[in-house]
Design brief:
Elements (H helix, E strand, L loop, with lengths): L13 E2 L1 H11 L6 E4 L7 E2 L3 E2 L9 E2 L3 E4 L1 H4 L8 E9 L13 E5 L11 E4 L28 E4 L9 E2 L10 E3 L7 H9 L4 E5 L3 E7 L3 E2 L10 E2 L2 H12 L2 E8 L3 H11 L5 E5 L9 H6 L11 E7 L1 E2 L3 E7 L4 E6 L3 H20 L8 E6 L5 E2 L5 E9 L2 E4 L8 H5 L3 E5 L5 E2 L4 E6 L2
Parallel strand pairs: 1-19, 7-8, 14-17, 14-18, 15-16, 18-22, 20-25, 23-26
Antiparallel strand pairs: 2-13, 3-13, 4-12, 5-11, 6-8, 6-9, 7-10, 19-21, 21-22, 23-29, 24-28, 25-26, 25-27, 27-29
Length: 440
């Protein structure tokens, strides 16, 4: 990993998007591994290879309800000339004390039951008379209703090859095989495999705990009545949902009023449950930008190495940004702009990669592709800024959604991609090939 960019440049340095991201990823480190129960490990990342201790399946077993027989005994069987076999008993899933199937014999067998010694194949019950002597049947009668079905004779109307309808021992995975590689994200199928091979716990990097809070005395929780000059707090909901989508355990904190001491104490109170703190709002140059006021000199009182650097980036939206660490454990903190689109774009570019890095993933970025720009007119972009426009992507074509305003939440809700306009491009004509960040 490349070294962090120096933080002594301060406000005089205009950071590029790549410099800011490099600084974040050079500072954030994967969380320490822990041993977790299987269900607690869902969505976590394995830190070691998992080897199969026992083959799956651990024994030859039937994939059908039917009869376990010898191949030679059913060779040439037909409805006109069925093979008539003596039934020696039942074999059910989980049953101990296997039967032996000798020449001219059959054992009634259930799906998942171990193939008895002597048997070489399974004929489905639909190929037999089910022991009733009345022609082909569609299924077995319940043992409780027909216990005599496990004895007597059965007529088989079709031949079967060796191993037919039998799940061979180790046909899924064999003992000693590598079941899962380190770096695997544990979803439901992986949890199922771990359980199937007998693993009750697994060593993983835990999901990061991310605390999200927004600032602004004008913010009101959704569901409350709006007063004069107030707006609903959408950022904390958007970013909390985005953090969860990235793989984190996210905690939303109610909006904090424009008071530096209140904000700082709120953040300090949240550090006990945070691997990463994300704030939104209060990072620009206004008189009420309390995040800068509260955190600009936090390193003066904390341990060496702590501190939040507020910087300007050559991007649109999202020019004002803050990054550093806070508290005795040097918890990373990313301070994002307050405009809804700015905060969300900033999350995708900077916070999501930080979360994925904490998880221990190697591929931390959204996928990108090239697409043809479909637009009614040329798109303009400010010189020297990397612009990220919302768009919809389909069939290698991307179309802008809404304008460039950083307050346009409705347009953001319909976007599934970001159109990237490089710093040295001031105009993009329709039909131009562009870089696209895929959000879905």
């Amino acid at each position: 990993m490349s070294s962090a960019a120096p933080r002594t440049t301060g406000q005089d340095h205009l950071w590029s998007v790549d410099e800011h991201l490099e600084d974040i990823l050079a500072t954030v480190r994967p969380l320490e591994p822990i041993e977790l129960q299987l269900l607690d490990a869902q969505d976590c990342v394995l830190v070691e290879d998992v080897t199969v201790p026992v083959s799956l399946p651990p024994f030859d077993n039937s994939s059908m309800d039917g009869y376990a027989v010898r191949v030679a005994d059913v060779g040439g069987a037909s409805e006109e000339y069925p093979a008539v076999l003596d039934v020696v008993g039942d074999v059910a899933a989980g049953q101990d004390g296997l039967l032996y199937v000798g020449p001219g014999q059959a054992a009634r067998i259930m799906t998942g039951a171990p193939l008895p010694d002597g048997a070489e194949t399974v004929v489905p019950v639909e190929w037999t008379d089910g022991g009733l002597g009345e022609g082909p049947v569609s299924g077995m009668r319940a043992r409780s209703l027909a216990p005599e079905g496990a004895a007597g004779q059965v007529r088989v109307y079709r031949p079967a090859e060796a191993g037919a309808h039998v799940r061979a021992k180790g046909s899924d995975v064999k003992a000693g095989d590598r079941a899962l590689e380190a770096g695997t994200v544990l979803g439901p199928p992986q949890i199922a495999l771990l359980a199937a091979i007998g693993r009750g716990t697994v060593r993983v990097r835990p999901r990061p705990r991310v605390v999200v809070l927004s600032t602004g005395s004008e913010l009101v929780p959704p569901g409350d009545a709006l007063g004069s000059g107030q707006i609903y707090d959408s950022n904390s909901f958007a970013l909390t949902a985005a953090a969860r989508d990235a793989g984190a355990i996210a905690y939303r904190v109610g909006a904090v009023a424009d008071d530096a001491e209140t904000l700082r104490s709120t953040i300090e109170d949240q550090l006990v449950r945070a691997d990463l703190v994300v704030t939104t709002g209060g990072v620009s140059v206004g008189a009420y930008d309390v995040v800068k006021e509260a955190l600009s000199h936090v390193g003066d009182e904390d341990e060496a190495g702590s501190g939040i650097d507020f910087r300007k980036l050559a991007m649109q939206p999202g020019k004002p940004q803050g990054f550093g660490s806070i508290g005795p454990d040097h918890t990373p903190l990313l301070a994002l702009p307050g405009n809804p689109v700015s905060s969300y774009v900033s999350f995708e570019l900077f916070v999501r990669p930080a979360i994925r890095t904490l998880m221990g993933l190697t591929d931390v970025h959204r996928p990108t592709t090239r697409a043809t720009l479909a637009a009614d007119k040329a798109l303009t972009s400010p010189k020297g800024r990397r612009q990220f426009l919302r768009g919809t992507y389909a069939d290698a074509t991307v179309r802008p959604v809404g304008g460039s305003g950083s307050h346009l939440v409705a347009a953001l809700a319909h976007a599934d991609a970001l159109i990237v306009v490089p710093e040295d491009v001031e105009s993009l004509a329709p039909g131009t090939e562009v870089e696209v960040v895929l959000l879905g």
